Amino acid sequence: MAANLPSMSDSPTPAVTGASPSAVHQQLRTLLCRLGDAIRDHLLATRHRHSTEELSGVAEITVADTIYGIDKIGEHAIIKWFSSHWPSSLPAEIVMEGLEGRPPLTFPTGTPPQRTDWKIIIDPIDGTRPLMYDKRPAWSLAAAAPQRGAANHLGDLVVAAMTELPTSKQWRADQFSAVRGCGPRGLVAEAVDVRLGTRSPLTPRPSQALDLRHGFGALVKFFPVAKAFTARLEEELFTSMGCSGADGGPPVFDDQYISTGGQLHEMLAGRDRVLADLRPLIFRHLGLPDALSCHPYDICTALIFSEAGGCIEAPDGSPLSSPLDTTTPVAWVAYANPALAALVRPRLLEILHRHGLLPAR
């Protein structure tokens, strides 16, 4: 049984602040969690029928991303679930990778997008690459915003849910959901025993550390492209904070989780203290294509981390405001708490301005 699971960190529990979620936001939260459950359970039920070669084979290349065989499993589960479970009282348009160039996907089926009340942005499997090789869990991400057509952006999202997609040897898969503006009161976190179907509460606790000494932090550098330049920026940042590890000093440790949802989970769990995904800025600076960047569907559950007490923002310190689509490159920085943000942000900004990644002040 998964009962009496420990909290996710030894940090103090965040204060309960904010209003209680409205009935419609609670309904949306529950629906997005059930969607995540359906994707997870469908993946677990079908994965054993496919070889690693089938799961990792390229099924399609779209303007948003490379679609692998394992991604198609998630896409089919989503369309089936929405057709059977999405209530007609909440007409919605779906935005997710793999739908580019197709007619708008809405539920109830056939509803014109301009007559929907909600826009649901989804990443069925965030972290496809480590999961399809059974290396590390992936995450299913979903969030909802009031429909505003092409004007919708990440700041409009009011409800979000993220569901862990476990590796074959895992018995536990975590799930988090939140409602904007409700603080921890609107956040629900559970550990699901995928063997028994039982659920136990978790307490997300972002790190309350006041510095980076002996902790985990990183700039995203998943791929060979631009890795040397990114590592140079990272070294400058941590050295400026006295955390280079040189001469026996306190180091900052690096753990590259190839999943934006997975990275947010590490921040929620109190394991990482600062993470920065600067790929769009770096690729643009170096004159490289930005196809290997984070996109809005990858970062759509950022509000869960914010509601838990963390800070997540654009590299210049402004709120995330990218359009709710599958193609816009998104750069972001997450700090475990406001004190760390106040400590690290000025140093990061100085480095970004000095290297020309942000406009001169």
Structural account:
This protein folds into 2 domains: 23-201, 2-Layer Sandwich (Fructose-1,6-Bisphosphatase, Chain A, domain 1); 216-354, D-Maltodextrin-Binding Protein, domain 2. 29% of the residues lie in helices and 20% in strands. The protein is built from 9 helices and 14 strands. It has helices at residues 23-47, 52-56, 69-85, 128-132, 227-240, 260-268, 279-286, 302-307, 338-354, and strands at residues 58-61, 66-68, 92-96, 105-107, 118-126, 138-146, 159-165, 172-179, 188-193, 199-201, 216-219, 272-277, 311-313, 332-335. An 8-stranded mixed beta sheet has the order 4-3-5-6-7-8-9-10, with helices on both faces. A hairpin with an 8-residue loop joins strand 8 and strand 9 (188-193). Helix 5 crosses helix 9 (338-354). The chain is globular and about 60 Å long. The chain starts with 22 loop residues before the first helix and ends in a 7-residue tail after the last helix. The model is unreliable at 1-7 and 9-16 (pLDDT under 50).
